[in-house]
Amino acid sequence: MIKSISIIFPIFNESNRLKYCFEDIKKFNRSSNINEIQYVFVDDGSKDNSYFIINEFIRKNKRKDNKITYKIVRLVTNGGKGIALKKGVKIATKDWILTVDTDISVSLLEINKWIKKKYLKKNNEIFFGSRNLKKSIVKFEYHRKLVGLIFIIICRLFLKINLSDTQCGFKLYKKNIAKKNFF
Question: Residue 181 in contact with residue 95, Cβ under 8 Å?
């Protein structure tokens, strides 16, 4: 069902986490049956050396076959995660767009599982990852988990949003839907 995908990483001072992100990317590249993969890193005004670490990763992992491509965008000032995602979606060119947090709280390998288990129904256009499902295996800090649960309760009570994990950065969109929703 997914022939091509753009994967967007919003980055802000992530130099300590990037090695885990890169490891996950390499595993995904080896295991995926997707024909074309585009990675878009949007550095949202980082003050650390994230931009240079990403550039070095891209230089070392560039391929000649264009099956897997990498792009990096550097924003001069920090505009926030929403601005970084918007810029990444604007640049994305593939049929599907995945937004994912650099901490890889949900691995890119989940896409392979979704495809294998046929979770990606033909008529659906947006898919949300969740770290709060019974079968989820996620590393987390307890204080962040508590804050997240409080936020979910507020969303359900006041906003009538019935998602189990609104803050999970792992979201998959058909390209046309992402382009409409981020602009």
Answer: no
